[in-house]
Amino acid sequence: MTGFGAYRHPLKVRGKNYGQVHIELRSVNSRFLDVSFRMPDEVRFAEHAIREAIGKKINRGKVEIKIFIQKEPDVSSQDSAAKTNEHKLNTQLIEALKKSEALVLKEFPHSNPLSVKDVLHWPGVMIQEELDQEALFEVIMLALDEVLKLFMQSRAVEGNSLKNVIGTKVDQMDAMISSIEPLLPKIIQTYQQKLTEKLLAVLNGLDQQGRSFNREDLADRIRQEVVLYGVRIDVEEEIARLKTHFAAVRNTLDKGGPVGKKLDFLMQELQRESNTLGSKSVHQETSNASMELKLLVEQIREQVQNLE
């Protein structure tokens, strides 16, 4: 299922306002749980705990979590704001970069020199105040808890919509089966009668050709075989199983929770019974019903892939 949640939580370090921890959580459809991270190095220590927290709430989906720290000045006083905005430079590293650049340019005079941007973005040049991991971890988990709540709310909205779509299609299938069920005895009886008449007509043709056989015994045997064939083409069991599966789908939807895998299994069973109904069909009504059922089952299966 798709979903989205975003939340900001203030972060304080040693009583000073350091900034805000921003967390975004989004997902797209997937049969399995796949979590990917986009976050700065100072947050990597919390990856395992974050993954566990997500796994407790989400079972399926390709999930992306984005974490970044938006630094802000401490608005409690102008002095502290000025101190917060100050950036300390690693002068020893800058001097080492300068010497290294001179050596490289000596060997490769046509190379481009380092720009101020290159130097400032060089790892370790900007000396930043170290974050308290314990305080940062607490803020991250608090923000993650709020994000997961918002994320699950967005999923619930989509889940209710999909529930209505699937429920409507199940109702269509149920109504279709209910419409052809009263016709089945007459369909079988009519087919048996037509088949008997055709076989008896063949016997009459053989009789006119002068072949010797006990006509009455063969006629009785034909009627017995036709009755047995009528039993084989009877689809009452398939109809009963289809109705049972319809009820199971409705109960699963009403129960809620992670239902994707169970509904996927029920769709396989519905497809199997629809195929059997078509293979046993001896009338246009049941053939059309089988085709419509398979189409609706496939449409539901596509929606089920979006459910957790």
Automatic annotation (TrEMBL):
Q: Which family does it belong to?
A: Belongs to the YicC/YloC family.
Q: Which residues form the Endoribonuclease YicC-like C-terminal domain?
A: 181-308
Enumerate the cofactors the protein uses. Answer: a divalent metal cation
Which NCBIfam families does the UniProt record give? YicC/YloC family endoribonuclease
Query: Where is the Endoribonuclease YicC-like N-terminal domain positioned along the sequence?
Result: 1-163
Q: Which InterPro entries match?
A: YicC-like_C, YicC-like_N, YicC/YloC-like
Single Gene Ontology MF annotation:
RNA endonuclease activity
Q: Which organism is it from?
A: Polynucleobacter kasalickyi
Superkingdom of this entry's organism? Bacteria
Keywords in UniProt for this one? Endonuclease, Hydrolase, Nuclease
Q: Tell me the protein's name.
A: TIGR00255 family protein
